[in-house]
Amino acid sequence: MLEGSLVALVTPMQADGSLDREGLRRLIEFHIAEGTDGIVAVGTTGESATLDEAEHCEVIRLAVEQVAGRVPVIAGTGANSTAEAISLTRQARALGADACLLVTPYYNKPTQDGLVRHYRAIAEAVDLPQILYNVPGRTACDMLPATVAQLAGVPNIIGIKEATGKLERLRDIQALCGPDFLLYSGDDATAREFCARGGHGVISVTANVAPRLMHEMVAAARRGDAELALTLDARLEGLHRELFIESNPIPVKWALAEMGLIGTGIRLPLTWLSEGCRDAVRAALCQAGVLDDC
User: Fold this and answer.
1) 24, 30, 25: which is closest to 10 by C-alpha?
2) Which residues are catalytic?
3) CA-CA distance, 24 to 26, in Å (whole number)?
4) From residue 132, how far is each of 76, 102, 108, 135, 159 by CA, in Å?
5) Does residue 210 sit within a domain?
């Protein structure tokens, strides 16, 4: 059920930075129509760091309501406080999320033992499928494969989003955790190879603007159609690169606005995409064939 191309969904905002609820509903309908396999709400790309708790839960509520069971909804509920992560995860469960995504605690740099205790505490407190999320480039905390293996034995910890871009991590986690532990790429540039090597899917930034292509590419890679996967990924290559030309989600929100899918709202300290970066992002959108006026 939780496999394929899952979008790390942006949070649409009004020009003043307030939540754009109708924009979120429209964006979800776009993804359903374009074949996205699952919605990941209020993760990094959803600007979770600048949403307060009420807004965070409102985005989850709206996503669950709008999706209405058509695809899974995974709620970002990670925090650098274990108590806060438990609270958010409890609320996500109450709101009807199918699973949650829990980033490693950021800034306070826990030990590997601290990570095990953190995630076990959340899993024991909330009966909801939980996906670990390792993104050391953001958090300054790297969850090692041996630590993942300790957590894989917890019944409701079902998988990991591994965003280092290191394919050897996939191999190591597969060897330690077995075939039933779900493995998601968190790095669009290496997602094709990740899925070809047995990964179950990707939680993708690129899928925000090219959901159909990402769905088809991941499906081809997973079923072993290497030639088709490579052809499709070649169209996406520019997006994998240019959507990180400035800090995510700055470029992807600009791209979605350029496509007419969302407005121009973003929250400080993030700013709108610099003019000098816009041609590169536009060219990537044109390469992928997702912009009409190329």
Assistant:
1) 24
2) 133, 161
3) 5
4) 10, 5, 17, 10, 6
5) yes
Q: Kindly state the helix (H) or strand (E) to which residue 74 belongs, with its residue range.
A: strand 73-76
Alpha helices in the chain (DSSP H): 21-34, 53-67, 82-95, 112-125, 136-139, 145-152, 167-177, 191-196, 211-222, 226-242, 250-258, 275-288
Report residue 92 as tokens.
């996500």
Question: Could you give the C-alpha distances from 143 to 39, 72, 140, 247, in angstroms and in order?
Answer: 24, 26, 10, 22
Q: How many distinct structural domains can be found in the chain?
A: 1
Report phi then psi at 13, rounded to 5: -135, 155
Gap between the Cα atoms of 92 and 130, Å rounded? 11
pLDDT digits (tens, 9 = 90+) for 24-65: 999 999 999 999 999 999 999 999 999 999 999 999 999 999
User: pLDDT value at position 141?
Assistant: 95
What is the model's pTM? 0.96
On whether residue 94 sits in a domain, the answer given is yes
Are the C-beta atoms of 279 and 251 separated by less than 8 Å?
Answer: no
Mean pLDDT for the stretch of residues 221-237 = 98
Q: Which residues, 6 or more positions from 220, have their beta carbon under 8 angstroms from its beta carbon?
A: 226, 228, 229, 232
Residue 194: CATH number of its domain: 3.20.20.70
172 within 8 A of 145, measured Cβ to Cβ: yes
**Torsion angle of C-alpha atoms 243, 139, 188, 96, degrees rounded to 10:** -100
Question: What range does the domain containing 114 cover?
Answer: 4-223
CA 215 – CA 229 distance, rounded (Å): 10
Do residues 86 and 58 lie in contact, with contact meaning Cβ atoms separated by under 8 Å? no
192 occurs within a structural domain: yes
- Report which secondary-structure segment, H or E, holds 5: strand 4-8
- The answer to whether the bond into 155 is cis (omega within 30° of 0) is no
Q: Is residue 10 part of a domain?
A: yes
DSSP code per residue over 276-288? HHHHHHHHHHHHH
